[in-house]
Amino acid sequence: MDLSQLDFVAVLLAAMSSFMLGGVWYSPWLFQRAWLEGCGLTELDLKATNPKWVFGGGFVLSLFIAFGLSLFLGPHPHLGVAVGVGFAVGLCWVSSALGMSYIYEQRPLKLFLINSGYHILQFTLMGLIFGLWP
User: Can you tell me the distance from the alpha carbon of 71 to that of 89, in angstroms, rounded to the nearest whole number?
Assistant: First the structure.
């Protein structure tokens, strides 16, 4: 696929969906407390970070991820294929890579499940957006 076939609006929407999913996934409503515990962080640590750097950097990386998945799927992917590929990328590539690192780093299984679950949903949601996009 050449870049002229890339739908930049769909890429932006997919990146925004990833960013919003992260906001909910790592919020106090879902996994913030367990995630902080697994990372060895406190709420004070979160408050000490620069939100422009954290959220700005996170969004730029979400754009990069959406761009790459869009290139991988090609123009106008079938909905089932796009969702399936997104799920497979999240499960087989991202989660497996995280899992290898977490094993060697001796990080908690709970942290792996939280982060891996986010990435599986992230890529699946992006696939859904690319599959539904006209």
Answer: 13
